[in-house]
Structures are given as structure tokens and as C-alpha cells.
Amino acid sequence: MLKETLLLAKNIRTDGYDGSLEAYRRAGGYTALEKVMKSMTPDQVIEVVKASGLRGRGGAGFPTGMKWGFIPKDRKPTYMVCNADEAEPGTFKDHFLINNDPHLFLEGMILGSYAIGCNHGYIYIRGRSVRPAQRINEAIEYLYKAGLLGKNILGSGFSLDLTVHRGAGAYICGEETALLESLEGKRGQPRVKPPFPATHGYNACPTSVNNVETLACVPFIVKEGAEAFKKIGTPNNYGTRLVGISGHAAKPGIYEVAMGVSMKQIINDLGGGVRGGKKLKAVIPGGSSSNVLRPEEIDIPFDFDSVAKAGSMLGTAALMLFDEDTDIVELAYRTILFYNHESCGQCTPCREGTFWLRNLVRDFRENLGDSQKLERIGRVSQQMFGTSLCALNDAAAGPIKAFVTKYPEEFKKHFI
Ligand SMILES: Cc1cc2nc3c(=O)[nH]c(=O)nc-3n(C[C@H](O)[C@H](O)[C@H](O)COP(=O)(O)O)c2cc1C
Ligand code: SF4
Questions:
Q1: What's the CATH number where 193 sits?
Q2: Is residue 41 scored above 90 in pLDDT?
Q3: Alpha-carbon distance 88 to 173, whole Å?
Q4: Which of 182, 221, 330, 390 is deepest in the core (most CB within 10 A)?
Q5: Ligand 2 centre and the CA of 349: distance in Å?
């Protein structure tokens, strides 16, 4: 029977823990910050994070230490921006951390800011996430009072201010360059890259954008060392993941597991399998941008590399289960409806491709499908890949192609 490996959710799973500054400090919180302020240089912080092999938890799995290492040292100001937007359908892990233990990622953010020489950081969160935004603001207020934010933190000479910025709710504003545009008060649309945010980010200054869960790993790494972090997980996939199980699961919720444990076991042992004793028809392993897997494909290690090898993506580790009664065409339609609605419209393949895919899948939904249209869905999605400014385009095309490739029989049921 698979059990949770508690690294990020350790405090949250402790009875009576309320996530206050007092409770966090009682549980050993901010000792990593004390250690760094007393005895570590910014470069040493970057080195330990690099050595830990930490990869970003926002979706792409980019190495965090490397990202911080790209920030030029000779250009000021530099910025750290925490991406707390969490808009990927199926995903609720960042808000779980924010609501229940906000100081964990805030400590990571202070450490990261010190590492890259940032004196003013931003936390970007969507406007409708009222409670999480309040939770962060309250936590920040206490940090200022305790001398853990503001001028001369713990007498170290390092100063940092944090500001919470609430977005207006477009999915695309989770993409880091669209987020930066939005933060600057402009329309949230992805930028042409290069240049990348590391050199030209917020207000064209060097910027690191990091996900909440990524930053939440940093206090452990700094306190316990890179090797302790690397003891959890599999090579190149170290640490834990907060897995958000949703859909037709018997026990939906957030579960923390060591990376590399079996996806099937996570679903059955932690998620309780499919509710009502029904059969599993499909699994989306990493949020709606990841390709669907058939039940016979899920007995794989749940880590970045293994899920990619299986033709999908670990993404946000948002495991969505679909039972035998699910209409895959309906699922595909809802998915493409979302991406078509959220496409910012800058790139023709994405703007037009999501529109055509939506119309084609809608034909099947209305029992107007045929073999030519099925083939056209595959062709349109294939033509979209790799042709646009940001990953939304591929995130729309990939899953739709996977639905028709893996479940052709479901689409054939909707032939005219
Ligand atoms: C359309 C789109 C939406 C995204 N939404 C989010 C999001 O809500 N939260 C997030 O952390 N990353 C999101 N990302 C990924 C970010 O662009 C970026 O890679 C991430 O914040 C970097 O943090 P990490 O290195 O800690 O993973 C999104 C990417 C795309 C293309
Ligand atoms: S790929 Fe889509 S969402 Fe991304 S910039 Fe282009 S049009 Fe906008």
C-alpha cells in the first residue's frame, strides 16, 4: 500500500497546524532563512539549489538553480516573481499550499530573492482566488512585523519587499511572459522569446518566474542539503510532487508522493481508484495540457521523464480520472472549447487551429462526424505543433490529437 512522502505537506498533515507564522516557526520554519542570512552567499544558495536537481513544478520542469544562475549579476534591479496563478484545469496544489501553509513558499521566495539579488518581489495570483490572496497578504504582514521582510532582514543588510498582484483571470496570464506583461499593467499576451525573462523580464529587467510548489521545496534544500533532497525521487526527478487527484476518483484530493512511484498505485492506493467500483476509461496525468493515457498505460513511474516517455507530460501533476461512462468526445470538446476561448489570438496557428479543432470536435458531439473529419482533426493538430509564440498552442493540439488517436472508437460512435 503506497503511503505519502511528506516533505511539503508535513506541517499541513500535523493535527492542529494552522499555517500561522508562529506555528510555522515552531515547526522549524525560517531556520533556512536564518542559516542563509548568517552564513551563505547568494551564489552558495544558487549552488545548493543547482546541486539538488530541483526542477520547476509549474509545468515545464526546468531546473530552478540553472534559471537563477542565468540572472546577470551586473544589472539592477532584478526581480523574483512567484507564479501563483494556478489556472491549469485540474490543478489545485499551489492553492493547497497557500491556504494551509503560506510561509513555506514565502520562505522559499525570500531565499530565492536573496540568491538572485532581488529587493522587490511579486506574487501573481488570479483575482478570483480571493482567500489565497488574503492568506498571502496576512502572512506578509506578519513577516514585516517579525523583521523577516522589509529593510535589513535579520540584520543581514539584505532588504526585500513583497507585493501581491491580482490578475483578471485569463489562463494565458499563467504563461510567464504574459504574466509579466500583465504585471506591467498591459494586456496579458506572451512575448516573443528570446530575449528571455532572465535578462529582459519585468520592466525589461532580469527576472526569475517561479511556481509556488517549486519555491516551497527551497527551504528544505537549503536546510537539509542537496543530498537529502536527492534521496527522494529518481535520478533527474528528485523530490516529491503534490498530486491533485480529481474527476471520478473515490478519494479526490492532494497527496504528496516521492517522484517515481507508480502512477497506478497513486490512483488506486491514495485516490481510492474509481468511485462507485466503476472501470477506469482514461487518465489525464498532468493537467488538461497533458495527453490522455489509456488504463493499460498508467503502470509507469510518476516522474517528469517517465510520463514524457509514455507520450504525455507530468505537467502540474493534476491526475484526472475518467470512468467507463465518460464520453471522450464530450471531454475532448470541453478541452478544446477551453483552449479556443483562452488563446490570446496573436498566432494564426493557435487562434485558427483551436477554432477549427473546436468546430470539428463539435461536429462529432452533434453526431455529425465522419472518417474525413476524424482524419482532419489529426491533420490540423499536427500542423499546429511548434508553430507559435507560447506553449498554449501545443497544449491545445496535443491532447486533442491524443483523444482521437487513443480513442478512435469513441469518435466513431458519433459518425453521422
Ligand atoms: C498557457 C500557459 C499557462 C501557464 N500557467 C501557469 C500557472 O498557472 N502557474 C505556473 O506556475 N506556471 C504556469 N505556466 C508555466 C510558466 O510559463 C512558467 O514556466 C512557470 O511559472 C515557471 O516556474 P517553474 O520553473 O517553477 O515551473 C503556464 C504556461 C503556459 C504556456
Ligand atoms: S500560442 Fe496561442 S496563446 Fe500563445 S501567444 Fe500564440 S496565440 Fe497567444
A1: 3.40.50.11540
A2: yes
A3: 11
A4: 221
A5: 9
